[in-house]
Amino acid sequence: MNQVARVHAVEDRLDKNRAGEISVTDVGVSLQSMAEAMEYAKLMSVSQQAVPQHLRGQPGVCLAIVDQALRWRLDRSQQILRRQ
Known about the structure:
Blueprint: H1 3-13, H2 16-20, E1 23-25, E2 28-30, H3 34-45, H4 59-71, H5 76-82
Antiparallel strand pairs: 1-2
Helix pairs in contact: 3-4, 4-5
């Protein structure tokens, strides 16, 4: 499956209601549950040029980076950008 097909497959599985519940504060995104973290990872994996090419359409990899960033109390989007 090529990258575009992977991105479309992820977009089709995106729970827009759950994603809409993710809070954004003055310090960044606030994830309250694993379900929110999973939706956030899906959103990041379909955000095209906002993430490195090898992460596009790869929500599992994005979730691992989000998990690591949460454990280290780092900004999730900055952690993904460092993985280029």
